[in-house]
Write a structure and sequence with these properties.
Layout lengths: L12 H4 L28 E4 L5 E6 L5 E8 L13 H8 L11 H5 L6 E6 L4 E8 L3 H14 L4 H20 L4 H12 L13 H6 L2 H11 L5 E7 L3 H12 L23 E7 L6 E7 L8 H12 L5 H9 L3 E10 L4 E9 L5 H17 L4 H17 L4 H15 L4 H10 L3 H11 L6 E7 L54 E5 L5 E6 L5 E8 L12 H8 L3 E2 L2 E2 H11 L2 E6 L4 E8 L3 H13 L5 H18 L3 H14 L20 H11 L6 E6 L3 H12 L24 E5 L6 E8 L8 H12 L5 H8 L7 E4 L8 E8 L4 H17 L4 H18 L3 H13 L5 H11 L3 H11 L6 E6 L5 H7 L4 E4 L12
Parallel strand pairs: 2-6, 7-11, 13-19, 20-24, 20-25
Antiparallel strand pairs: 1-2, 3-5, 3-6, 4-5, 8-10, 8-11, 9-10, 12-13, 14-18, 14-19, 15-16, 17-18, 21-23, 21-24, 22-23
Helix pairs in contact: 2-5, 4-9, 10-13, 10-16, 11-12, 12-16, 13-18, 17-22, 19-23, 24-27, 24-30, 25-26, 26-30, 27-29
Length: 948
């Protein structure tokens, strides 16, 4: 994909080594659905062109947008032998030129008009999806047909994108603490014969072996009308859409040869298997216990899906309860059912807690599988799992993109458009007996595969990826190249159609009211889907931690761990029974408690949320448990170059000021936090007169008022009001260049950072637009220079980082170690350019469209709408800003952007932080920055401004 790493579902933020700054939502979903909730059918029309292209369309006039998706029935299982990663590599190439338009035109047709585009590759499919304002629909239909029929693949593009994919591999597989495990070692161990055993992203060796002729033959073989599904959803005229599809896709033809045969059947296991792998950056041991299971269209998939929910969905799940909560041997435990087109597996895993052994983890995973075989699950467990799954299906239909995607997955895996709608009934029909039956059939010891993943050392060298793997398709099986297309001279190209008349965008109205205790309430009604979201924002953030770094995050995380006499497991079970999501998080300035639930059970979910906020228990054992889990998460984060750079950057920009400390705490601050600290923080900072409560979704103002009064009307603060914050950004510091040496790191993380502005600053909008031009989108200047032109990074981005006080601007990229110095200088040069020269008129127009389109897209879900309103409320900005946003963006001038960057973000103020294997780049850094500070990762001290 263009923007996401290729990792299994199991690879969460902890596995990727991301900072644990905000606890995740407690997830839930339904299948004996909450009373009165119906999951609406997808409602697509179907037809087939004479060339075999299957078309599915669904009209929705409640949106001003359309989504266009093309799902090709080719995935990594179809990669030729010795060419693993081909399908994914070709996904990248499909965004380049055709005979009628130049490279990056898809970004011009989508991002530049306020839309978006992306793609992904998995075992069985490569899918391309775009969402744009509805008046641009014909342009996308033309463009999708053109890249199917006349894609240009030349040597320079091939080499550049192959380099980008290598950086994606280094970032997602080599630099991520558990990337090798889930991307490479699990599939290659799980499958013995099937091509699913190869990772989707491939290997450096196979990528290097590819030739441009191979790639062209791959396109000629698989990119054909009769091997694709075209899905269109949104605001359009059906008859006009049909004419456009006939006009642009109708003339395309298929090769005169069938697709290569690829239908491998994985053999039934003949006995248990075990494997142990070693990697250089494994902060905590991990274990996996897996069982071959069923393909997607197998009737047992529904029962295995519910079984998986019982095992690992939410904090009342069996794996979390046993390994994380009760035994305390793991910092994370979960499972997934991977039911693909031709084979499948149930995979359970655990990331062990500090000091715990892999053997203890495997023994516990085996014990939980035995429980499922030997004892019936309870009626409550069955109901919880079903409710979570059905509510999840409801949320997956909230936007036109979601509905098109749900259809696409069903088509790829079954060929039947009705299977997505039938899924809900199949889940509802699962019984307790079904769960035990499939556990006994599939989750046996004889069929099990155990994997240990440990840190490499002198006695146990780094395990290597197996690249010598047979495959059912060979390069010789691919179709001949056929016609080689080149970009036509401009006068000979078929012109891209003009956009049609625009469709008006409606901004929801926001009603406000205030309870007698001072709690401000905001209501943004969004009828349609029977979902409601509420968000309580509190003036309580890491800038209030004082010398107790991590306190605000720990406090927020503890809200769901016991309240009003309910234990943490009881709270999790209640959330899951409702098919709700309730969770809390904390950032630099604010904490947020969020609830999302089907509308018929929302009052009950709201009542529970109020108990968590107002009456948390903060039991001593729960404080200890959360603190230990936070420490383990931090240890994982400190093994990943990107997360280390992010934490160090705070200290470099802010020093000892309140904003400088890592929000998630440090290895020394977390063990010092006590229950008394948490209780005092909550009593002081969680108070109604400074809080903001936002409702959005299927709810009226009257209903919201009644719920707010019932839940929070008699709420009073538990302690005296805290003193006003005293300049948490501190005073400006001298720029620094810091290299943190991580020998053997798979990549280097490059961060350029400096003080920016507060959210209230009058230059917020010019700087926001300038940041979007610099590094806020795929077509930004940084991404053009570093990824697209040079192939040095999978993605480069920047963030204005506004806060209540002075925020922190950060531009970042991950690259191969030897390119770190080059990337740093490219980033600094682009920052300087924005201070020195004005953006062009075309750059202004496209960035304005990107900002306006992204703003509108953010309002399409109930959670997105609530988050936007809450952001205005917490920064004390008027609700009129919601309707005024687009006008303010369109009023920005090029001169305002340049002057704002020159004043607030001059390159001379920038600090540079690089984390990686410094032996590969330190000489180049010293040549440019003689005053560089080099700090071994083992000596890094995040408690000190000096980082030592």
């Amino acid at each position: 994909m263009k923007t996401r790493l290729i990792l299994t579902v199991a690879a969460s933020a902890l596995l990727l080594g991301l900072p644990a700054a905000a606890p995740a939502l407690a997830q839930t979903a339904p299948a004996a659905a909450p009373q009165g909730i119906t999951v609406p059918p997808l409602g697509f029309q179907e037809r087939t062109l004479p060339n075999g292209l299957k078309i599915y369309t669904a009209r929705d006039t409640s949106t001003s947008n359309v989504t266009v998706q093309v799902w090709y029935r080719v995935g990594s299982k179809d990669d030729p032998e010795d060419r693993s990663g081909f399908a994914h590599l070709f996904e990248h190439l499909m965004f380049k030129a055709t005979q009628n338009f130049p490279d990056e035109t898809f970004d011009r047709l989508t991002e530049d008009v306020g839309g978006n585009n992306n793609a992904f590759t998995s075992d069985d499919v490569t899918a391309y999806h775009e969402t744009v304002p509805a008046n641009h629909l014909e342009r996308l239909i033309f463009a999708e047909a053109d890249r199917l029929g006349s894609l240009v693949v030349n040597e320079s593009v091939f080499e550049s994108e192959r380099d980008v994919v290598k950086e994606e591999y280094r970032q997602g597989v080599l630099a991520s603490p558990y990337g090798r495990l889930f991307s490479v070692f699990v599939p290659e161990t799980l499958y013995q014969e099937h091509p699913y055993r190869r990772t989707t992203i491939g290997s450096i060796e196979n990528l290097d072996a590819a030739t441009i002729e191979d790639v062209r033959r791959f396109h000629a073989t698989y990119y054909r009308p009769d091997n694709a599904y075209l899905i269109v959803a949104g605001n359009f005229d059906q008859a006009q859409l049909d004419r456009w599809i006939d006009q642009y896709f109708g003339p395309l033809t298929n090769p005169d040869r069938p697709l290569p045969v690829n239908d491998v059947r994985e053999p039934e296991p003949t006995g248990p298997r075990e494997a142990t792998f070693y990697a250089p950056n494994v902060p905590l041991p991990a274990v996996v216990l897996a069982w071959p299971a069923v393909r997607y269209d197998n009737p047992d998939r529904a029962a295995l899906t519910v079984l998986d929910g019982i095992l690992s969905t939410g904090e009342s799940s069996r794996l979390y309860r046993a390994l994380v909560y009760d035994q305390k041997i793991a910092t994370q435990a979960s499972s997934s059912l991977d039911a693909s087109q031709q084979a499948g597996a149930v995979t359970a895993y655990a990331i062990m807690a500090e000091g715990e052994t892999p053997e203890a983890g495997l023994a516990s995973l085996r014990a939980e599988a035995a429980r499922l075989r030997n004892e019936p699950v309870t009626e409550a467990e069955l109901t919880e799992a079903k409710n979570e799954l059905i509510a999840g299906a409801l949320r997956e239909r909230e936007t036109i993109e979601d509905r098109a995607s749900a259809l696409g997955w069903s088509l790829i895996n079954t060929g039947d458009a009705a299977s997505a709608d039938n899924e809900v009934a199949a889940l509802q029909a699962v019984t307790i007996a079904d769960i035990q039956r499939v556990a006994r059939r599939y989750l046996t010891d004889e069929r099990s595969i155990a994997i240990r993943y440990l840190r490499a050392d002198d006695q146990n060298p780094v395990s290597t990826q197996n690249v010598d793997v047979d495959a059912p398709v060979t390069v010789a099986d691919l179709a001949p190249v056929g016609r080689i297309f080149e970009l036509l001279p401009e006068g000979q190209r078929t012109p891209i159609p003009d956009a049609g008349p625009s469709v008006d965008v409606a901004t929801p109205a926001v009603e406000t009211l205030t309870l007698s205790n001072g709690l401000n309430v905001y209501v943004a009604r969004k009828p349609g889907m029977p979902l409601v979201s509420a968000r309580l924002g509190l003036i309580a953030g890491s800038s209030d931690d004082g010398d107790k770094a991590g306190l605000s995050v720990l406090t927020a995380g503890l809200l769901t761990q016991g309240a009003a006499g309910r234990s943490a497991p009881e709270i999790a079970a209640e959330i899951e029974q409702l098919g709700a999501q309730i969770g809390a998080s904390s950032g630099a300035d604010f904490s947020n408690v969020v609830v999302n639930a089907p509308s018929d059970v929302f009052p009950r979910a709201m009542s529970l949320m109020a108990d968590l906020v107002r009456r948390p228990d903060f039991a001593a054992e729960e404080v200890e448990r959360q603190r230990d889990q936070s420490l383990d998460g931090l240890r994982v984060a400190l093994s990943s170059p990107g997360s280390v750079a992010a934490m160090a950057t705070g200290r470099v920009v802010y020093g000892d000021a309140a904003y400088g400390a890592p929000a998630s705490g440090t290895l020394t601050s977390l063990p010092r936090l006590t229950r008394e600290d948490v209780v005092a923080f909550h009593a002081s900072r969680y108070r109604p007169e400074t809080a903001r409560l936002v409702f959005s979704g299927d709810i009226t103002v009257e209903e919201a008022r009644a719920l707010a009064e019932q839940a929070f009307g008699d709420w009073r603060a538990g302690g005296p009001a805290p003193a006003p914050r005293a300049h948490p950004a501190g005073e400006p510091l001298k720029p620094r260049v810091v290299v943190i040496d991580q020998p053997g790191a798979g990549q280097a993380a490059v961060y350029v950072a400096m003080r920016s502005i507060a959210r209230s600053d009058e230059d917020f909008f010019p700087l926001t637009l300038g940041n979007t031009l610099l590094g806020g989108s795929f077509t930004s200047r940084l991404n053009q220079e570093i990824r697209i032109k040079r192939g040095l990074s999978y993605g480069t981005r920047s963030n204005l980082g506004v806060r209540q006080d002075i925020g922190a601007f950060v531009a970042s990229a991950q690259t191969r170690n030897d390119a770190a110095a080059e990337v740093a200088e490219l980033v600094l040069a682009e920052i300087s350019r924005l201070s020195d020269t004005q953006p062009t008129a075309s750059e202004m127009t496209t960035r304005q469209a990107i900002l306006s389109g992204g703003f509108g897209s953010g309002l399409e879900t109930v959670d997105g709408l609530a988050g936007t309103v809450a952001g205005l409320a917490l920064y004390d900005l008027p609700m009129s800003d919601l309707a005024a946003y687009v006008g303010r963006v369109e009023a920005i001038t090029p001169g305002q952007v340049q002057s704002a960057f020159a004043e607030h973000l001059p390159a001379a103020n920038a600090s540079l932080v690089i984390v990686g294997d410094s032996a590969q780049f330190i000489d180049a850094i010293r040549a440019k920055h003689p005053d560089v500070e080099v700090i071994p990762l083992s000596d890094l001290n995040l408690d000190a401004a000096a980082l030592r």
